[in-house]
Amino acid sequence: MNGFITAKEAAEKWNVTNRQVQMWCKNKMLDGAVMFGSSWAIPETVEKPTRTKNFKPGRKPKDDANK
Q1: Under DSSP, is residue 64 helix (H, G, I), strand (E, B) or coil?
Q2: What is the pLDDT of residue 58?
Q3: CATH code of the domain containing 8
Q4: Which of 20, 24, 31, 32 could staple 16 via S-S, CB 3.0–4.6 A?
Q5: Residue 23 sits in which domain range?
Q6: How many beta carbons lie within 10 A of that of residue 45, not counting itself?
Q7: Tens of pLDDT along the chain (67 residues)?
Q8: Looking at the 3D structure of the chain, how many domains does it have?
Q9: What is the reported pLDDT for 59?
Q10: Contact yes or no for 61/55 (Cβ under 8 A)
């Protein structure tokens, strides 16, 4: 498909693991990524996500105001 790359290609491009790219896709951190069967198709123009401040999926950020 023109205009799309695989998760493996994105991993090599961004110097991260294939699994990390798959998790970004699953968690909707890569805009326009779609799953075809068991593979992800990622738009070539999408940027590598940046890490958010001390946030881990599944956990609520700490609220210092309630201390």
Answers
A1: helix
A2: 65
A3: 3.90.105
A4: 20
A5: 1-45
A6: 10
A7: 689 999 999 999 999 999 999 999 999 999 999 999 999 999 999 999 887 555 566 666 666 655 5
A8: 1
A9: 61
A10: yes
